[in-house]
Design a protein that fits this description.
single chain; alpha+beta; 23% helix; eight-stranded mixed β-sheet; OB fold (Dihydrolipoamide Acetyltransferase, E2P); globular
Length: 124
């Protein structure tokens, strides 16, 4: 390895410390999601709580990762208009380890991904 190549490699080690092993694998934890709002990511965690709010406007289904609402680290939101595609997500994913892909948004300071297609959610 030339001196110039070695210098570039060393420089990269110092100037790219923000690249964590998690982001290099393409997946982040539910706890890391709050630092990636606005980014398309794959977020993984344990579904600790679920709720189908059938009497609420939009009939949302909530999958709470790594803690139960209001203390969950991350939420997967499935609107009622997309619910039929998922079957009964509050049962299907309950107490499972999952990964969800999509753009992370923030609702009242909490990170979430709106899932519109079942291919966005995979069980680990």
């Amino acid at each position: 390895m030339s001196t110039k190549t070695l210098g570039v490699a060393v420089a990269l080690l110092f100037f790219l410390p923000g690249i964590s092993p998690a982001s290099q694998s393409g997946k982040i934890t539910s706890a890391e999601a709050k630092n990636h709002v606005g980014e398309k990511e794959i977020v993984c965690g344990h579904v600790s709580g679920t709720r189908y709010a059938d009497k609420t406007k939009g009939q949302p289904t909530f999958l709470d990762l790594d803690g139960r609402y209001p203390n969950s680290a991350f939420t997967v939101l499935i609107w009622g208009s997309d619910r039929a595609k998922f079957g009964e997500p509050e049962t299907k994913y309950a107490d499972s380890d999952v990964c969800v892909s999509g753009t992370i948004s923030s609702y009242r300071g909490a990170p979430e991904i709106v899932a519109t297609d079942p291919t966005q959610i995979t069980k680990k």
